[in-house]
Amino acid sequence: MASQSIQDPNPAARDGVVAWSIAALVAATVILGALAPAPEHHAALKPGEDAACLEWSDGCRVCQRNAEGAACSLPGIACTPSQDRCLRQSGG
Q1: CB–CB of 87/73 below 8 Å?
Q2: This prediction's pTM
Q3: pLDDT tens figures, 29-66
């Protein structure tokens, strides 16, 4: 059996369709990206600023929220504070 290769009668037309398809896909992606609403970025509240956080610590001192405001312990003399983190939240 002799192998026969099938020739595309009009390769330029196929290439044009592929090129236009890619261009349309890129354009649609750009338009969707421009029209889509941007995600909202909320700045993370520090535990002392977050009313839901009832107790927080930086590793050196512990603070608790009470009716008069925040009350914090005194840090040790050789303590190196880290980032504040909430230890107890309201409702649980």
Answers
A1: no
A2: 0.50
A3: 889 888 888 776 556 778 888 888 999 999 999 999 98
